[in-house]
User: Which sequence fits this backbone?
């Protein structure tokens, strides 16, 4: 995979949008009951694997500003990388939309348990529910419609999981 200026710029924009959306919705983007709207961007990786770089940087920076700080920047970002890799190699959008709920639920649930003393399974369930709502419901609906739009696929320079009739 070659990185050129266009790909670097696209990933920088994704990182900036991720950070901006997370900070703009900070009241419900962190802690155990979270609906991190920026997480919807992870489904871009379904269409282009290299967008995981921008998402990773955006998640890392956004988590630095959160209440769990550096620990969340490391482990929360690791959860995003794992989810993103699973999504990048998925062939079904709906299945891809479920990975972040599972991975973030477990990782962030553990963070909240060890750092905040919150109950692990309850925290994992709340985080997973927020991820499911944002990604598997809204994200799936949005991206399943957008993937049928040639202008969208061209705009994001999609190079995988393109419907055969495009």
Assistant:
């Amino acid at each position: 995979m070659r990185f050129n200026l266009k790909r670097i710029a696209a990933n920088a924009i994704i990182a900036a949008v991720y950070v901006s959306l997370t900070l703009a919705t900070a009241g419900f983007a962190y802690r155990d009951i979270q609906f991190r709207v920026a997480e919807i961007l992870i489904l871009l990786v379904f269409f282009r694997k290299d967008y995981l770089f921008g998402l990773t940087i955006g998640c890392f920076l956004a988590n630095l500003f959160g209440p769990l700080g550096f620990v969340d920047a490391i482990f929360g970002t690791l959860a995003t990388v794992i989810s993103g890799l699973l999504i990048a190699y998925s062939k079904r959008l709906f299945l891809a939309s479920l990975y972040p709920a599972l991975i973030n639920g477990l990782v962030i649930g553990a963070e909240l348990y060890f750092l905040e003393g919150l109950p692990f399974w309850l925290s994992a369930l709340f985080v997973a529910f927020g991820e499911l709502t944002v990604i598997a419901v809204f994200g799936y609906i949005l991206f399943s419609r957008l993937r049928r739009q040639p202008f969208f696929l061209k705009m994001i320079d999609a190079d995988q999981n393109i419907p055969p009739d495009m």
User: Anything to note?
Assistant: Helices lie at 5-24, 51-64, 69-88, 93-116, 120-146, 150-155.
